[in-house]
Amino acid sequence: MSHTQAAASKAPHPHPPADRPTRLGRFVKRAKWPVLLGWLLLAVAAGGLAADLGDVQRDDAAAYLPSGYESSRVAELAEPDPEHPDAETALVLHTRDDGAPLDDADLAAVRAAAAAVSAADVPGATPPGDVDVAEDGRTTLFPVRIQPAHADDDTVERAVAALRDTVAEAPTGLTARVTGEAALGVDNSGGDVDAALMLTSMAIVAVLLLGTYRSPVLWLVPLLAALVAVVASRAAAYGLAQAGLTVSELSSAIQIVLVFGAGTDYALLYLSRYREELARHHDRHEAVAEALRRTGPAILASAGTVTAGLLCLLVADLAGLRGLGPVAAAGIVISLVAMLTLLPALLACAGRWPLWPRAPRPGRPRGAADHRLWDAVARRVVARPRRAGLLVTLGLCLATLGLTGLTTSADPIDKVPPDADSVIGRETLAEHFPEGLTAPLTVVLPADADAATLAAAEGAAAGARDVAAAAPGEELAGRPTLDVELAVPPYGDRAGDAIRAVRAALADVTDDALVGGTPAVQLDYREAALDDTARIVPLVLLAIAVILAALLRSLVAPVLLLAATVLSFAASLGLSTLVFTEVMGFGGVAADLFVYVFVFLVALGVDYTIFLMERVREERRHHPTPEAVRRGLAATGGVITAAGLVLAGTFAALAQIPDVTVAEVGVGVAIGVLVETLLVRSVQVPAAVVLLGDRVWWPSRRRG
């Protein structure tokens, strides 16, 4: 056989007479330059709004607390104006390095440190409180109140840094640490991470695109389209915040990685088909339009599933979770529009040269149809579907055993890196001072409560189970308060029972008593998160099932795909638990982690199966189901794997954020995407489709 004949035999075979290009394809062909100019103008206009997103982000308590709960109402009374938050407290601890009791010289050094703090220029700080010595004599603390000027300033960050610098030079043998709510918040935030997150995501996408296409130019095209989509998405988030929606730092960070990851996935799917069409068409405009026609439905369905899943978050009680839905959904929609208009317009304007040195042409496919690796995988799966599917299913079931080590935690220190100074200080504080002292409850009583009611409320609170003491506190918004000290660790199950007991006891005294404070906030947050999960999970599954049924024209396939994705979610969470506890050293996870990981993993993970099944359905027009599965898996295996690596890489970038919950969401979704890409989409689903045969398309009878 001649070289020309060999090349022709490997070239993509022409399709049967192609359908007419879609309206979108015809539009991009005819108006490529106006489309490009329009996106350029949009990027310039959106850039200013995107840069101002940080000015409208909310990270006060109300941005995260569930509405209607007692602790939320107390927080609102404490901070009636979110733009002018209440003061935060930092606690300065001193201990001996050898663990021995502090002697007179040590106590004198501690008092000198307090005087140094009072004399130092600590932003927003009031003079330190009295030095308190633990009963065992081994630790001291003194509080420092820090009052920020407004919600968006960095007073607390600068004050905590100044405190640490001031007390760092402790006498030999003494160690000073700064903890308390102010220090924990600083160690949890890490400052403005959006720029670093964007650069990390861009670097990950660039490296993976270079590895996928091995072209010095082509990787820039989807990266440019994704970057424009990110800028436009952040401008949309700014508009949503101005309209009254809660946009938090968490929403902003997730939107960045989501748009980069999902947008690049759509670009990879389109580019893969575009390369195939370039090997069939002399005119690149025809290739652009035909690639749009072939990939548009799958990309649209993919974006639809993610958007539908994200909009289900609107039913959440947690304000931060509820606000994330529209912010992230806007990013997905903008990514979709960018990858179906801007990316094709860039390719139509540029011609074939960005694909150098592997630009396909009719008769010279140059790898456009080279699927040897995935063809081999597909042949093995189709040849032995029962064995392949069973092995993967058993492996996923074993991975779910990791869930036995998963525990939820309401303790704020579990949201901070375990090696942070404030976490070590909090642990020291808990060892040497009464449990309830570290986080007392605040009981707010009615403004018109008389002396008898106040005394009865104090007695009822003090007599509740696991309460160490109750005493009158400072007025809050003109209402009398009680400070209630718990006799148990303030964030465990026993603390939750104690808080409920206090609320029940006070309900017998007055109908308008509110129990707040950090332990009550964490308890209410946990319960709201679990309630949100119970509402959102069925909604997400229903929404995605409807979209899959409409796309695949089947009632069996959606059930199969969702069952596989749910098992993948459980296995991924089990594996993630091992990573959290054994590798990263984290403690219990926040209760809202489940719903975050579930929504992103199920909505994003099912995307890859959509890409596969849409190609299988296309091949089924001309081949029986087993052969259609083989051809579909061989054709999409490489591009879907690359897309999965991109999405996993961008979400893994969240691990650099100090907020442990955000890092856990990123790691959990990254692991889940890899499981979905490499096992579920590549082996389990194809094997199940082969075993079911044409029944998987029921009730549809017509092929395709």
Automatic annotation (TrEMBL):
<dbReference type="GO" id="GO:0005886">
    <property type="term" value="C:plasma membrane"/>
</dbReference>
<dbReference type="InterPro" id="IPR050545">
    <property type="entry name" value="Mycobact_MmpL"/>
</dbReference>
<keyword id="KW-0812">Transmembrane</keyword>
<keyword id="KW-1133">Transmembrane helix</keyword>
<feature type="transmembrane region" description="Helical">
    <location>
        <begin position="220"/>
        <end position="241"/>
    </location>
</feature>
<feature type="transmembrane region" description="Helical">
    <location>
        <begin position="298"/>
        <end position="321"/>
    </location>
</feature>
<protein>
    <submittedName>
        <fullName>MMPL family transporter</fullName>
    </submittedName>
</protein>
<feature type="transmembrane region" description="Helical">
    <location>
        <begin position="559"/>
        <end position="581"/>
    </location>
</feature>
<keyword id="KW-1003">Cell membrane</keyword>
<feature type="transmembrane region" description="Helical">
    <location>
        <begin position="593"/>
        <end position="612"/>
    </location>
</feature>
<feature type="transmembrane region" description="Helical">
    <location>
        <begin position="253"/>
        <end position="271"/>
    </location>
</feature>
<feature type="transmembrane region" description="Helical">
    <location>
        <begin position="388"/>
        <end position="408"/>
    </location>
</feature>
<dbReference type="InterPro" id="IPR004869">
    <property type="entry name" value="MMPL_dom"/>
</dbReference>
<feature type="transmembrane region" description="Helical">
    <location>
        <begin position="33"/>
        <end position="51"/>
    </location>
</feature>
<feature type="compositionally biased region" description="Low complexity">
    <location>
        <begin position="1"/>
        <end position="11"/>
    </location>
</feature>
<feature type="transmembrane region" description="Helical">
    <location>
        <begin position="327"/>
        <end position="351"/>
    </location>
</feature>
<keyword id="KW-0472">Membrane</keyword>
<feature type="domain" description="SSD">
    <location>
        <begin position="219"/>
        <end position="349"/>
    </location>
</feature>
<dbReference type="InterPro" id="IPR000731">
    <property type="entry name" value="SSD"/>
</dbReference>
<feature type="transmembrane region" description="Helical">
    <location>
        <begin position="533"/>
        <end position="552"/>
    </location>
</feature>
<dbReference type="Pfam" id="PF03176">
    <property type="entry name" value="MMPL"/>
</dbReference>
<feature type="transmembrane region" description="Helical">
    <location>
        <begin position="633"/>
        <end position="657"/>
    </location>
</feature>
<feature type="region of interest" description="Disordered">
    <location>
        <begin position="1"/>
        <end position="22"/>
    </location>
</feature>
<feature type="transmembrane region" description="Helical">
    <location>
        <begin position="669"/>
        <end position="693"/>
    </location>
</feature>
<comment type="similarity">
    <text>Belongs to the resistance-nodulation-cell division (RND) (TC 2.A.6) family. MmpL subfamily.</text>
</comment>
<feature type="transmembrane region" description="Helical">
    <location>
        <begin position="195"/>
        <end position="213"/>
    </location>
</feature>
